[in-house]
Amino acid sequence: MDELQRLVDVYRSRAASSARSKLDVLIDLERVRDPRVVPFLLQVVMDQGESEDVRIHVVKQLRNGSGVLVPADRPTVASTLAEVLANTSTQELRLQAALALGDFTDIDD
Q1: Contact 51, 67 (CB under 8 A)
Q2: Which run of H or of E encompasses 95?
Q3: How far is it, in rounded angstroms, from Cα 4 to Cα 61?
């Protein structure tokens, strides 16, 4: 089992845990340079059963890049952020998604 899969398994095992506990795992996961990280993070963002704090954290990480995103991920991430805006997410999550999506409209990227 590789490091990414180990962290994903730990995250999933904390389904009933606090947002803080999940954020600890996400912070470690975001340090892993693997093309499977972004699809996993997008699943977390789209999970309406997930806590708002966790989903907002992921949106901010996707917005800031933090080395997680590669150019090939941008269309999928932008599409997911647009879905967050269109669904019944909380106002704060939609705001963060809109801010992140705004960064994806920068033509110089």
Answers
A1: no
A2: helix 91-103
A3: 17
| 95: its two tokens | 């705001």
DSSP 39: H
Q: Whole-model pTM?
A: 0.87
Cβ–Cβ < 8 Å for 44, 50 = yes
Q: Give the position of tokens 């590789």.
A: 2
Binning pLDDT at 50, 70 and 90, where does residue 82 land? very high
Number of H helices, E strands in the chain: 6, 0
Of 32, 37, 34, 89, the closest CA to residue 62 belongs to 37
- Which structure tokens are listed for 8? 């994903």
Position 1, amino acid: M
pLDDT band, very low/low/confident/very high, at 109 (cuts 50, 70, 90): very low
Angle ∠(51,20,54) on CA atoms, nearest 5: 30
